[in-house]
């Protein structure tokens, strides 16, 4: 078969890493005929735990898994890599201000951007999962000037999938009957899940559901606050669903969206829909041949406009904050 694709996963010993690595190694990220070589990046204290996970990966005897290498040095971990999943991040702890959070993550994503710039393969694709994902992606992208900006993306696919699940329950249809769901903006509580362009079995979803109160008071807050609801119920944050969304994101990016459908990805804005150029914001995108494109020409009514503007405004503020901290 073909030469293995190098996939670097940061935060490999964390809970998302534990759910993600086995799915990558089984062929679900890139395809059932694509061998992969895993490169795990962890902080020194977590290298031993990563080694334990690597032992379990061995024990699965995955035919597509060409090998696993473990690093505590970003330059080595990203050398020659084709796909980078940046999962490891500094979580917000009690009493931490936003500036502290951004600064701590700048200390992770700046050197990782530099390492990607220095040594990743020419076809590198980057997905940032670690929060605050959009702004962490921006920091990494800004420190990789030789890599085309469109190769840096952040994950809103979990929000997208959550929105599909909620709408399918409300409408009593299968998730596969729903097309053209969109998440706009930041992967945060300000995100805007938009069903005005979505379709259920080919008909407009908002019109089919026809329940503005559900949309405003149930659907939008349920999707936006789902992460907190999972923590409340499970006693730990979303892990397997986040890993599943990361698999979906990269699989769609590499293999393309289906005709008549699109997905949600946070990508570098070109100014479409009034989103300031350069920020990494979620849009409806189609993918083909390993490239994404923002869906153009959608009509945005006042209800959607206000929500998109609020989330995008938060991203613009985060960019100002990291500029002020000298992180970009
Ligand atoms: P864990 O705390 O279980 O794991 C994080 C791992 O990252 C740890 O093993 C830690 O040692 C490692 N790490 C820290 N700094 C690192 C560095 N500089 N280089 C390499 N590894 C490093 O967190 P987990 O539950 O796996 O979540 C990971 C991240 O995903 C968090 O930032 C979380 O907020 C974020 N999420 C993002 C989601 C999204 O939709 N974009 C949803 C799920 C999740 O909340």
From TrEMBL:
<dbReference type="InterPro" id="IPR022383">
    <property type="entry name" value="Lactate/malate_DH_C"/>
</dbReference>
<feature type="binding site">
    <location>
        <position position="98"/>
    </location>
    <ligand>
        <name>substrate</name>
    </ligand>
</feature>
<dbReference type="GO" id="GO:0030060">
    <property type="term" value="F:L-malate dehydrogenase (NAD+) activity"/>
</dbReference>
<comment type="similarity">
    <text>Belongs to the LDH/MDH superfamily. MDH type 2 family.</text>
</comment>
<dbReference type="InterPro" id="IPR001557">
    <property type="entry name" value="L-lactate/malate_DH"/>
</dbReference>
<comment type="function">
    <text>Catalyzes the reversible oxidation of malate to oxaloacetate.</text>
</comment>
<dbReference type="GO" id="GO:0006099">
    <property type="term" value="P:tricarboxylic acid cycle"/>
</dbReference>
<feature type="binding site">
    <location>
        <position position="112"/>
    </location>
    <ligand>
        <name>NAD(+)</name>
    </ligand>
</feature>
<feature type="binding site">
    <location>
        <position position="131"/>
    </location>
    <ligand>
        <name>substrate</name>
    </ligand>
</feature>
<dbReference type="InterPro" id="IPR001252">
    <property type="entry name" value="Malate_DH_AS"/>
</dbReference>
<dbReference type="InterPro" id="IPR010945">
    <property type="entry name" value="Malate_DH_type2"/>
</dbReference>
<feature type="active site" description="Proton acceptor">
    <location>
        <position position="187"/>
    </location>
</feature>
<protein>
    <recommendedName>
        <fullName>Malate dehydrogenase</fullName>
        <ecNumber>1.1.1.37</ecNumber>
    </recommendedName>
</protein>
<dbReference type="InterPro" id="IPR036291">
    <property type="entry name" value="NAD(P)-bd_dom_sf"/>
</dbReference>
<dbReference type="Pfam" id="PF00056">
    <property type="entry name" value="Ldh_1_N"/>
</dbReference>
<feature type="binding site">
    <location>
        <position position="92"/>
    </location>
    <ligand>
        <name>substrate</name>
    </ligand>
</feature>
<dbReference type="InterPro" id="IPR001236">
    <property type="entry name" value="Lactate/malate_DH_N"/>
</dbReference>
<feature type="domain" description="Lactate/malate dehydrogenase N-terminal">
    <location>
        <begin position="6"/>
        <end position="147"/>
    </location>
</feature>
<dbReference type="Pfam" id="PF02866">
    <property type="entry name" value="Ldh_1_C"/>
</dbReference>
<keyword id="KW-0816">Tricarboxylic acid cycle</keyword>
<feature type="binding site">
    <location>
        <position position="105"/>
    </location>
    <ligand>
        <name>NAD(+)</name>
    </ligand>
</feature>
<keyword id="KW-0560">Oxidoreductase</keyword>
<dbReference type="GO" id="GO:0006108">
    <property type="term" value="P:malate metabolic process"/>
</dbReference>
<dbReference type="InterPro" id="IPR015955">
    <property type="entry name" value="Lactate_DH/Glyco_Ohase_4_C"/>
</dbReference>
<keyword id="KW-0520">NAD</keyword>
<feature type="binding site">
    <location>
        <begin position="129"/>
        <end position="131"/>
    </location>
    <ligand>
        <name>NAD(+)</name>
    </ligand>
</feature>
<feature type="binding site">
    <location>
        <position position="162"/>
    </location>
    <ligand>
        <name>substrate</name>
    </ligand>
</feature>
<feature type="domain" description="Lactate/malate dehydrogenase C-terminal">
    <location>
        <begin position="156"/>
        <end position="320"/>
    </location>
</feature>
<feature type="binding site">
    <location>
        <begin position="11"/>
        <end position="17"/>
    </location>
    <ligand>
        <name>NAD(+)</name>
    </ligand>
</feature>
């Amino acid at each position: 078969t073909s030469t293995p694709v190098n996939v670097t996963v940061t935060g490999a010993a964390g809970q998302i890493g534990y759910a993600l690595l086995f799915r990558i190694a089984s062929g679900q990220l890139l395809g059932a005929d694509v061998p992969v070589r895993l490169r795990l990046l962890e902080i020194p204290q977590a290298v031993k735990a990563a080694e334990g996970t690597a032992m379990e990966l061995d024990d699965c005897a995955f035919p597509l898994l060409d090998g696993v290498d473990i690093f505590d040095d970003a330059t080595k971990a990203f050398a020659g890599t084709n796909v980078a999943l940046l999962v490891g991040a500094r979580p917000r702890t009690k009493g931490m201000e936003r500036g502290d959070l951004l600064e701590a993550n700048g200390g992770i994503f700046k050197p990782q951007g530099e390492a990607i710039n220095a040594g990743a393969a020419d076809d590198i694709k980057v997905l940032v999962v670690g929060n605050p994902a959009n702004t962490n992606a921006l920091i990494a992208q800004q420190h990789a000037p030789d890599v085309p900006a469109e190769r840096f993306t952040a994950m809103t696919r979990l929000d997208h999938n959550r929105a599909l699940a909620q709408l399918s329950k409300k409408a009593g249809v299968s998730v596969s009957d729903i097309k053209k769901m969109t998440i706009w903006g930041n992967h945060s509580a300000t995100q805007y899940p938009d069903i005005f362009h979505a379709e259920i079995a080919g008909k407009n979803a908002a019109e089919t559901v026809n329940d503005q109160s559900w949309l405003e008071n149930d659907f939008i807050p349920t999707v936006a606050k789902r992460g907190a609801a999972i923590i409340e119920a499970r006693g730990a944050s979303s892990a397997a669903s986040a890993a599943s969304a990361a698999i979906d994101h990269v699989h769609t990016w590499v293999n393309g969206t289906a005709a008549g459908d699109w997905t949600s990805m946070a990508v570098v804005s070109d100014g479409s829909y009034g989103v300031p150029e350069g920020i990494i914001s979620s849009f409806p995108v189609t993918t083909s041949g390993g490239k994404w494109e923002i869906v153009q020409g959608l009509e945005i009514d006042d209800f959607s406009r206000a929500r998109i503007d609020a989330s995008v405004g938060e991203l613009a503020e985060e960019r100002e904050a990291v500029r002020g901290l000298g992180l970009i």
